Amino acid sequence: QVQLVESGGGLVQAGDSLLLSCKASERKYAMGWFRQAPGKEREFVAWSSWSGRDLSYARSVKDRFSISRDNVNNISYLRMNALKPEDTALYFCAAGQIGDESETTYPYWGQGTQVTVSS
């Protein structure tokens, strides 16, 4: 059972940046980031293969967000720049054998960290 703990969320203004972190209890898993806004379904944000060589982003964040990882400390990062009010959501990290945009790919999930962007 892989345990994931997210951190780094908060309340920021439009245009600000945030760095989310996800600490995993085990190594060698692809990591995905998803988000869920109030009243909406959970949606894909980004994923990274274990090596970090393969990356993918949702179209809505591609030019603003960056996923990276520290495989020594088993941490996945999501750098979010130029934040918009529509980025407000509960952000989750997830771990699985492969990276994919589908949340069903990932058997392990964190509890989420709230990001709120004011206009």
Q: What shape does the CA trace take? A: globular
Kindly report how far apart the N and C termini lie.
40 Å
> Average pLDDT across residues?
96
Largest sheet: 7 strands, mixed
Q: Which radius of gyration do the C-alpha atoms yield?
A: 13 Å
Poorly predicted parts: none
Helix/strand structural class: mainly beta
Protein model, in words:
With 119 residues, the chain is an all-beta fold. The chain is 0% helix and 50% strand. A hairpin with a 4-residue loop joins strand 7 and strand 8.
List the helices and strands and how they pair.
Layout: E1 4-7, E2 10-13, E3 18-24, E4 30-36, E5 43-48, E6 55-57, E7 65-70, E8 75-80, E9 89-96, E10 108-109, E11 113-118
Parallel strand pairs: 2-11
Antiparallel strand pairs: 1-3, 3-8, 4-5, 4-9, 5-6, 7-8, 9-10, 9-11
Concise description?
By secondary structure, the protein is an all-beta fold.
What characteristics describe this protein?
119 residues; mainly beta; seven-stranded mixed beta sheet; four-stranded antiparallel beta sheet
